[in-house]
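Example record for the data management plan.
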Amino acid sequence: MKIIILGAGQVGTTLAEYLSNDDNDIVIIDDDQSRLNKLQDKHDLQVVKGNAASPRILRQAGASDADLIVAVTNSDESNMIACQIAYTLFNIPTKIARIRNPDYVYESEVLFSNAVLPIDHIIAPELLVTQEILRLIDYPGALQVAHFANDLVSVVHVKAYYGGPLVGYPISVLTDHLPYIETRILSIFRQDKGFVPQGSTIIEAGDEVFFICATNHIKAVMAELQRLEKPHKRIMIVGGGNIGTELAKNLEQNYSVKLLERDQEKAERLSEKLSNTLVLCGDASDQELLFEEHIENIDLFLAFTSDDEANIMSGLLAKRLGVTKAIVLVQRLAYLNLIQGGTIDIALSPQQATISALSSHVRKGDIVKVASFRQGEVEAIEIIAHGDSESSKIVGRKMSEIKLPQGAVIGSIVRNGLVIIAHKSTVIEENDHLILLLNDRKQVEEIEKMFQVSSFYL
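Corresponding structural encoding:
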């Protein structure tokens, strides 16, 4: 597949690295030559210096025979114009654009079509992060929750703690504890090493556990691995940007929400826009202000400014002053790896959320959705099985007959709206939606090949 990536920022660079390992012809456009040089030194790809929305530059990059264009420059408008040019001049089949401005996102159904702005898929990082936070609030104690098959089934990443009924016991007793709930533990990371467990595997405190189940059973399964946290009631949000504002809108009817914004004018505008949120003007590093607002009674502290250092430091301070849980937004991947699993409970990356969303559109095969875990180390994918027992390596075969790459596991099948937790005797049927977990995301290419339909397969 020939893919043109517009923008060599963090997302463009990560996406190029992500795709260059596969059998893809990658061209990346940016106006910063030093960024392009670094990429070309490390990966097998082509680079073009120039304006990503220029017809001349796109032609130079080989747009006339490209299969896919991904516009992730820092400008929404440049991304939109580039997709328009890609459609009008070069007839590129698939066009994806990162759109940050919520004004565009809210009008996306009207704006983005071949008749108006020909963009096939938009990726809105702020919206993705907001949705992820709302899922974590719905399931306190989870490190990450990803829904699949129209939210019918979910893969959940959670840490096991003493007090969970399954901790210290083999996985096989889970069926005794939850006789009426179908679930499967897909992977365990112990001391940073992942493996696919057996029924005899004993769950240890500190294990990072990935399990799959019907979405309505998440809390019941989580309760086996840790004492369930009490639902959050009092929430403090730091930063009145797009994410902070959208979170406050979504939460203020059901929670006690305080929003802390440093800019006086912005705080005043937010106080008019938000009906049930207490908007404060101040600095999250001001201990006196935090004490005045009874920081020790806050259940959940969310730091979502555009400044990584401010988010990290305010999160650390809030935890020291008695906050139950702190979640912070971090742009730099180096910081993300540094703080994850420490005093701060969860660090979220808009780049990782964007890459996950992009992955489902740039992969081969009928992949519906991709979710990344552990900073992209682990992937869960939803893929549709096609063909029959003659043309497919998957369809018509029992699970025990399918040879997956080591560390990959099929967790669930969704068939005609029914969630089936996969067992050795389960037979795959055409049009089944399979949800797999891969302990190594490099295995995706091998999985794609397994699911390809071939008239020559015997």
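Summary line stored alongside the record: The chain has four domains: 2-123, 129-225, 234-323, 369-451.
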